[in-house]
Amino acid sequence: MKVNAAGTGLVARAAIVVLRDHRSVIGLDPSSGMSGEARKTLPIPLVLGIAKKLPFGNDRFDFLSMGLFAPSRPLIMRVFTGSGYAQLLTT
């Protein structure tokens, strides 16, 4: 399973525990500051980018966790493999 999650890394850390494999998790955040914080505690690749223009190829992830922004479905659906899942967190 491949998971995309970032921000400060809360969901990414949980994904690593559940999957028992940090190599299956990739972080994405538009903020270099947030990525810097996540980098302090996460042994995963961290990519700068935004949900409207996900910098990943098609059919890449099984699970996507996203906070503060809910893009239209076509923008995120292309990165899922088969039947992917999205977790949209809002405040």
General description of the model:
The structure is a single chain. The chain starts with a strand and ends with a strand. It is globular, with a radius of gyration of 12 Å. Strand 2, helix 2 (32-41) and strand 3 form a beta-alpha-beta unit. The protein is of the alpha/beta class. It has a 5-stranded parallel beta sheet, with helices on one face. It has a single domain (3-89), classed as Rossmann fold, CATH 3.40.50.150. It has helices spanning 10-19, 32-41, 73-77; strands spanning 3-4, 25-29, 46-48, 61-67, 80-89.
Structural key phrases:
alpha/beta; 3 helices; Rossmann fold; five-stranded parallel β-sheet
Name the poorly predicted regions: none
State the separation between the terminal residues, measured CA to CA.
27 Å
Strand content bin: 25-35%
Please count the beta strands (DSSP E, at least 2 residues each).
Answer: 5
- Largest sheet entry: 5 strands, parallel
**CATH superfamily (homologous) name:** Vaccinia Virus protein VP39
| Helix run count | 3
Briefly note the CATH topology name.
Rossmann fold
Apparent shape: globular
Helix coverage percent = 25-40%
Question: CATH top level?
Answer: Alpha Beta
List the helices and strands and how they pair.
Elements: E1 3-4, H1 10-19, E2 25-29, H2 32-41, E3 46-48, E4 61-67, H3 73-77, E5 80-89
Parallel strand pairs: 1-2, 1-4, 2-3, 4-5
Short description:
The protein is an alpha/beta fold and 91 residues long. Helices cover 27% and strands 30% of the residues. A 5-stranded parallel beta sheet has the order 3-2-1-4-5, with helices on one face.
